[in-house]
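Lecture notes, unit on protein representations.

Consider one protein chain, 174 amino acids long.
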Amino acid sequence: MPDTALLIVDMQCGVVAAEPAAVRLEQVLGSLKLAIAKARERGFPVIFVQHEEAGLERDSAAWQLHPALPATAADHFIYKRHGDSFCDTPLAALLENLGVSKLWLGGCATDFCVDSTLRNAVSRGFQVTVIADAHTTLSAFALSGEQVIDHFNAVWHATNATPQPLLVQPAAAL
């Protein structure tokens, strides 16, 4: 049984493809497709997380995964209402049932749901590899989306006080 799963957070049409669109979107989609292909080649489970709230109602067009992502019926799907993919979802139980101790992580938004999920996963003892070129966000607040992504990659790379190594690698290095 593989010990690693690919976790893709909130890559939904209404999150990444609405106006304004998420930054580096085409690059991120390409990197996620590469990560999905590598995970499937190795027999790793692929898990898609989808956020639900006003404007992202389940089964609406905005709620759907971006069409460039090759989801299949064999994949796992987690639906959440909070930023952290573990909060009030069956994600932890799914990972335990799958025997997973390591996660490859990508998705949207770098500074919200991806970071919240990463921190909870690390606290739960998972070894997390953030896919450096497979997460995105919007340009908001004082920093551009590109600056946010670069900043979080640097912060995560410098983080060493974790129960298991926290790695930051491009999809090509997985």
